[in-house]
């Protein structure tokens, strides 16, 4: 990628520079993970730890040194140079709940957006570079616009499964206003129509896994740009499709993220359409009905003795 914008002291390319920072950030996360950290609540079940804050500070400092002309928008409050042409969306620790419980599925996510002069604040620019680092597996996912996507230097591509019935997909649930979110219905329906729906707790890694062909699709309500910016570019560069739930243009602030290998995308969009219209939810026994069935089975067995 290009060596610096006009007048910059930039020394590294976008992805090589950010990859170096993400590895450093990931090493700090590994240390915090090993020693264990106390958790605080940002709200409802939205957790935050000293690791989130310390690592965001580290990334902000290092990005500032490496790319002094770039803006930074971080989950833990960093808002620097948001009028600049290039802006990093940073999630220093995606998967905080996992991290806090000692469940080793989390990552550092950094996505770079390029914006045209005069764009409205709610307009999206172009995602041009992506870095996602999983410090527990030492996996580094990289993408640059037009140059493909890699994991640890090896080119990745989305899967070839052509139907949802043979697909493994993933989703996540919001940690705020949980009672106002209908995703459990989508989870229910898509679980019954696929090989399974994983809920591993790191949206950025879910997106990277779609890019790597380990998952065939992923959806989630109400994600933020720091969760998605890097992963969306990875999926695009790995040959996947990215949209909102209606199959329309994905927006960084759209609150609807749907990605797939492309082949199962229309099928997923149709299911969303049906569920939003109140059609086709497969019936399951309620816990009460199930208990009654179990009781009558037990009685039946008892009668035979
Ligand atoms: C969360 C994770 C999770 C997703 C939540 C996100 P955080 O990010 O990506 O998978 O389901 O919606 O908020 O809070 O761990 O950075
Ligand atoms: Ca996140
Ligand atoms: Ca986070």
Plain-language structure description:
With 305 residues, this protein is α+β, with helices and mostly antiparallel strands. It has two domains: 139 residues, Fructose-1,6-Bisphosphatase, Chain A, domain 1 (2-Layer Sandwich), CATH 3.30.540; 113 residues, D-Maltodextrin-Binding Protein, domain 2, CATH 3.40.190. The chain is built from eight helices and 15 strands. The strands form three sheets. It has an eight-stranded mixed beta sheet, with helices on both faces. Helix 1 runs antiparallel to helix 2, helix 4 packs across helix 7 and helix 5 packs parallel to helix 6. The radius of gyration is 21 Å and the shape is globular. The termini are far apart. The N terminus is likely disordered. The structure holds D-MYO-inositol-1-phosphate and calcium ion (CA) (2 copies).
């Amino acid at each position: 990628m290009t060596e610096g914008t006009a007048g910059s002291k930039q020394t590294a390319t976008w992805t090589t520079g950010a990859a170096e920072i993400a590895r450093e950030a990931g090493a700090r996360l590994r240390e915090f993970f090993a020693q264990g950290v106390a958790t605080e609540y940002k709200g409802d079940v939205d957790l935050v730890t000293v690791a989130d804050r310390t690592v965001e500070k580290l990334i902000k400092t290092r990005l500032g040194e490496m790319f002094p002309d770039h803006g930074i928008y971080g989950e833990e409050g960093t808002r620097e140079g948001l009028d600049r042409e290039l802006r990093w969306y940073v999630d220093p620790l995606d998967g905080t709940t996992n991290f806090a419980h000692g469940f080793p599925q989390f990552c550092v996510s950094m996505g770079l957006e390029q914006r045209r002069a005069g764009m409205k604040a709610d307009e999206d620019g172009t995602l041009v570079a992506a870095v996602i680092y999983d410090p527990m597996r030492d996996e580094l996912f990289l993408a640059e616009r037009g140059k493909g996507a890699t994991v640890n230097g090896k080119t990745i591509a989305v899967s070839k499964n052509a139907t949802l019935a043979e697909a493994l997909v993933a989703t996540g649930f919001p940690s705020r206003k949980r009672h106002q979110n209908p995703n459990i219905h989508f989870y229910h329906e898509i679980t019954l129509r696929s090989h399974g729906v994983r809920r591993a707790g790191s949206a950025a890694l879910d997106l990277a896994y779609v890019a790597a062909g380990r998952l065939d699709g992923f959806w989630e309500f109400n994600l933020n740009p720091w969760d998605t910016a890097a992963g969306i570019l990875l999926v695009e560069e790995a040959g996947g499709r990215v949209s909102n739930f209606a199959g329309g243009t994905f927006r960084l602030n759209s609150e609807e993220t749907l990605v797939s290998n492309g082949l199962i995308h229309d099928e997923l969009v149709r299911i969303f359409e049906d569920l939003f219209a109140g059609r086709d939810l497969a019936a399951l026994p309620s816990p009460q009905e199930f208990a009654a069935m179990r009781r009558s089975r037990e009685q039946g067995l008892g009668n035979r003795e």
